[in-house]
Specification:
This protein has 271 residues and is of the alpha/beta class. The chain has ten helices and ten strands. The chain has helices at 11-22, 37-44, 49-52, 67-70, 90-111, 148-153, 157-176, 202-208, 223-235, 252-262, and strands spanning 2-6, 26-31, 53-57, 75-78, 117-121, 180-185, 187-189, 217-222, 241-245, 248-251. The protein has a seven-stranded parallel beta sheet with strand order 3-2-1-4-5-6-9, sandwiched between helices. It has a three-stranded mixed beta sheet with strand order 7-8-10. Helix 1 (11-22) crosses helix 9 and helix 5 (90-111) runs parallel beside helix 7 (157-176). Bound molecules: NADPH dihydro-nicotinamide-adenine-dinucleotide phosphate (NDP). Residues 7, 9-13, 31-32, 39, 59-61, 79-83, 97, 101, 121, 123, 162, 185, 187-188, 198, 200 line the site of NADPH dihydro-nicotinamide-adenine-dinucleotide phosphate.
């Protein structure tokens, strides 16, 4: 089967591409700049890439950019979205590429009758950020949706971009009769395949380098589990709706302890 992965050079997407190639799929992978070796050489070196990986140039903000990639594909894994927690212009840097980009990819899917399912990488950012009371016993599940006004009030711009893009995606697929499964991971950690460090792994590097860490807890999940969940969501016919992915919730100080136990030779300093 032929499938497409958008934003293929990213942290999570690179693992999705690796596992798809291992499963025997032919993969059409989109990147913004296929001539940049930092973005593509790790993909080209994957097992099966020579025979079954095809790179395409596509940009979330370019209307029609994904048409030729998606045409003829059976599955579409839409992972591309800017992941940045600090921005100057939230609308231009986060919200437009996330929302317009998702609609752009879905419009290409609507034009291609070969597409049997879309798997969208959303986030727990689109699930948990609302005014509902949260106590330690509260279970946050797939029935929860983040509240855009709450995100705006707290200036959680990345969270807002994921909330608005998932909302827009559900509206579009319901109107256009597209089968979509949404994956909502917490913070994702694990080994990098790509050359450049990404936003969710950076806090771990910061701890190793003795930089201050925030006084808060987060859900965490392994990148290989996240990639596998995307593929299961595509392959299991009965999969439906959204799937929250969280292995456990840990405070940053606990992360320090875990890293110290795992890698005693790193001599992680106190902060
Ligand atoms: P990365 O930063 O590693 O990857 C993001 C990808 O998005 C990059 O490959 C980038 O492409 C692409 N992208 C960004 N802007 C554009 C654009 N304008 N046009 C085309 N492509 C663009 O992030 P992750 O792997 O961490 O994230 C992947 C997905 O998972 C995102 O949707 C993110 O919101 C979601 N997610 C991530 C979590 C995490 O903790 N990491 C947690 C929950 C959800 P290029 O390389 O070509 O520039």
């Amino acid at each position: 089967k032929v499938v497409c992965v958008t934003g293929a050079s990213g942290f999570i997407a690179s693992w999705i591409v690796k596992f798809l190639l291992q499963h025997g799929y032919t993969v059409r992978a989109t990147v913004r700049d296929p001539s940049n070796p930092k973005k593509v050489s790790h993909l080209a070196n994957l097992e099966g890439a020579k025979e079954r990986l095809h790179l395409f140039k596509a940009d979330l903000l370019e209307e029609g950019s994904f048409d030729s990639v998606v045409e003829g594909c059976h599955g579409v894994f839409h992972t591309a979205s800017p992941v940045r927690f600090k921005v100057n212009d939230p609308q231009a840097e986060l919200i437009d590429p996330a929302v317009k980009g998702t609609l752009n990819v879905l419009k290409s899917c609507a034009k291609s009758p070969s597409v049997d399912r879309v798997v969208l990488t959303s986030s727990m950012s689109a699930v948990a950020f609302n005014r509902r009371p949260k106590i330690p016993e509260t279970v946050i599940d797939e029935t929860w949706f983040s509240d855009p006004d709450f995100c705006r009030e707290l200036e959680l711009w990345y969270t807002l971009s994921k909330t608005l893009s998932e909302d827009a995606a559900w509206k579009f697929v319901n109107e256009n009769n597209i089968d979509m499964i949404v994956i909502n991971p917490t913070m994702v950690a694990g080994p990098l395949l790509q050359a450049e460090i990404n936003e969710s792994v950076e806090p771990i590097l910061n701890i190793i380098n003795g930089k201050p860490f925030p006084n808060k807890s987060s859900g965490w999940v392994d990148v290989k589990d996240v990639a596998n969940a995307h593929i299961l969501a595509y392959e299991i016919a009965s999969a439906t709706g959204r799937y929250c992915l969280s292995e456990r919730v840990v405070h940053y100080s606990e992360l320090v302890r875990i890293l110290r136990d795992l890698y005693p030779t790193l001599q992680i300093p106190d902060k």
